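Hmm, what's this shape?
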Amino acid sequence: MRMTNLIEISKLQNAIDDELHKSLDQSLNDYPAEYISMLHYQLGWQGDKSGPEVQGKRIRPLLVLLACHACGGDWRNALPASAAVELVHNFSLIHDDIQDKSITRRGRQTVWVKWGEAQAINAGDAMLTTSYLALFRLQPFLAQAMMIQAIQLLQSACLTLTRGQYLDIAFEDKNDLPMDLYWQMVEGKTGALLAACLGLGSLIGMAEESQWKKLMDFGYKIGAAFQVQDDWLGIWGNGQQTGKSTITDLVSKKKTYPVLLGILNRQDFFREWQTLTEVTEEEALRLAKLLDAEGCAHKTNQKFEQLYAEAFELLDDMNLDFERVEPLKRVIRGLFDRAK
């Protein structure tokens, strides 16, 4: 088992799943078995290939617990909030899969493919609702005013998430996306929930308002860095190591950071991109070479490194206890340890 400065990550991950079970059992104890099965399936507890690989690493709830610990709190007090953010995350995944018509997720059928769109929408709604019920399990640990703040943090993150999804869908069939809207999309689809995780954890850890707001800024910046790195990997990464095809983003004409740089360049990539209504595998490979030749691969990597450095500068400026903040830093660094 991996130890991280007296914090055993596997212990926290097990505690998160126990809390998820408690939250769902408390809310759904007399609900139909198939209804419950859909939620358990999404969380990786039931069905074919169920287990740790399908469940994932529970990164978002882990950040809640580690932020609480970093600010001097007892991570166990933050378990209800950790369950809440994982349920919100899975709500968004269920709805994303429907909107994107994704057939599989983590190597098995998505909920809408298995049970139909109508039931999947309902299952996603259930995930969202139970997330807020899970937050109320914080009442023994938080004063009423802090409870209200915690609920507001998560609600605001969910609203920002929907803006990000709106922008992603709205610009799907267009050749361009203004860079300022790209950052809004990234904030919604990646940064908002990461920021909420850190804000909730530090709030429960009894951090001062200035501290938990700084940790949220750190979360937004980490979300932006993660997305820019993901955009780089989506074109120039090692598909066998990342598990992500290096042509899918270009074939689907996804508005990623390097693509937007290529559009702004107004050179060969831009001219070819404008003429293509559909992109074949061969054309995707040629577009990737054009982007690289025009410096977009290098500039994208530079942007990622800039955002990553700025994020950790924000965290270091908080002067949190070294022993307590180190587990959080290590887990965040691990997010970016994706082979290129």
Notes: Residues 1-5 have pLDDT under 50 and may be disordered.
